[in-house]
Amino acid sequence: MDKLVVRGGKPLTGSLTVSGSKNTALPLMSAALLTDGPVALSNIPDLKDIHTFRRVIEVTGTTVDHSPATHSMTLDASTLERAEAPYELVKRMRASFYMLGALLGRMGRARVSLPGGCAWGPRPVDLHIQGMKALGATIDLDQGYVVAEAPGGRLAGGRVTLEPSSVGATINIALAASLASGSSVIENAAIEPDVVHFCEMLEAMGARLNGIGTRTLEIEGVDRLNPVSFKNCPDRIEMGTFMIAAAIAGVPDQPVHILGGRTDHLGDAFIEAFERTGTGLTVEEDRVIVTAPEELRPVSIKTEIYPGFPTDLQAQWTILMARCSGNSKVHETVYPDRFKHIPELQRMGVNAIIVGDEVMIEGGKSFQGTNVMSTDLRASVSLVLAGMVAEGETHVLRVYHLDRGYERLEEKLSNAGIDIERVSYDEWADPN
Ligand code: EPZ
């Protein structure tokens, strides 16, 4: 098993490059199942979740030619024959549940394992199921699997209202609706950039959508969709993570350049809060330039669906707030209890306490490096950020969580001046 060893105190300088978006690549890969020819995707990040999903897709008989080094992937679902997604793979990555919409849309049937929960709690899929039923599918539960059938082999289409708005349900229902015989409407649809970019790929394949990027997404089913070549967008959460890293570990007279990202994908709430900390942000054509201030100002935030403050940047923001002299609050409204990083940060001396669905942070104190345990993807990257500015050495254990969503993070940070290295270790070895 691997850990990341971070020796704190080194300034972040130079540049960081943002990889392709994990949460967009997964729906783009799903869309490839809707056509019977080669779909060439580019800017696909080399992440554990991408490798996992590739294996899920290959179970169906679809061929996947993946070149991680060139961030490209060609999927050919002309040989798709098995409408299944097995538990052994779905349990590793919840977005595998997109197979339900893709297989129902393409094959008129699907047998997909229910995804488990995750480190911070249950991750329901009731809205996904509600949506498939609204499109005309019959749904049974059989030994932990969702067994779905479209009467007559093809979904009819229908109307569904999502409450709460859901990224995954919007994507899953759109996958199924695109090849339905009739029209569908998704009310209170998610409008995250991941969803918009995925809808743009469906359109490029010949799908008929109206209202992309609005809360009312209309889909007129078509008889077939065509193979395309399509480029994935950059990862907005990695972008936000790097901006926060530059704010806490940068030095005022050496601005950090972040290449390849898109600030407009972060939503206004994050950008406004980020600038209110006093951190300098200059947006140019191919980069953003982040200048750490002499003193960071505390800014309380509340996570909300897009264009609100992204919940996937909540843990990282807590580290930024802990570096400010002053008090602040981080209010999580999307997921209950997405705070598994807090006890680990408390071990480093971060003064943060959980009160209900909020974290109260008293900033300005120094942190001490120590052994800390990753619990989930965004919690683990917040521990790396804390280690970058802690006194001494921080060992971030079980870094497989981090490898799900950050490509070569230690290499990128090391090339920007941070003292960080990947080390393998035996988690069960007795202390010497
Ligand atoms: C996507 O998850 C992302 N994952 C998450 O990123 C992200 O945190 C989340 O959207 C919110 O932005 C991927 O895109 C692969 P939701 P998703 O359905 O689709 C409730 C990361 O770190 N809900 O928008 O699962 C749900 O409990 C990951 O990259 C239902 O009640 O999120 C939550 O409270 C973590 N019933 C809210 O909706 C449902 O059927 C939003 O969840 C579905 C969701």
- CATH superfamily label of the largest domain: Enolpyruvate transferase domain
Into which percent range does the helicity of residues fall?
Answer: 25-40%
**Percent range for β-strand residues:** 15-25%
In the CATH classification, which architecture of the largest domain applies? Alpha-beta prism
- The CATH topology annotation of the largest domain reads as UDP-n-acetylglucosamine1-carboxyvinyl-transferase, Chain
Question: Which blocks of ≥5 consecutive residues have pLDDT under 50?
Answer: none
User: What is the gyration radius calculated from CA atoms?
Assistant: 22 Å
The tally of beta strands, per DSSP, is 24
Largest sheet: 4 strands, mixed
Write the layout of secondary structure elements.
Elements: E1 2-7, E2 15-17, H1 22-31, E3 38-42, H2 48-58, E4 63-67, E5 72-76, E6 84-85, H3 87-90, H4 98-107, E7 109-113, H5 126-134, E8 138-142, E9 145-149, E10 159-161, H6 167-177, E11 183-187, H7 193-204, E12 208-210, E13 216-220, E14 229-231, H8 236-249, E15 256-259, H9 268-276, E16 280-283, E17 287-291, E18 301-302, H10 314-322, E19 327-331, H11 342-347, E20 352-355, E21 358-362, E22 371-373, H12 377-389, E23 393-397, H13 400-403, H14 409-414, E24 419-424
Parallel strand pairs: 2-15, 3-14, 6-7, 10-11, 18-19, 22-23
Antiparallel strand pairs: 1-23, 1-24, 3-5, 4-5, 7-9, 8-9, 11-13, 12-13, 15-17, 16-17, 19-21, 20-21
Helix pairs in contact: 1-2, 1-7, 4-6, 5-6, 6-7, 8-10, 8-12, 10-12
Ligand EPZ binds at residues 23, 26, 95, 123-128, 164, 166-169, 190, 194, 311-312, 334-335, 377-378, 405.
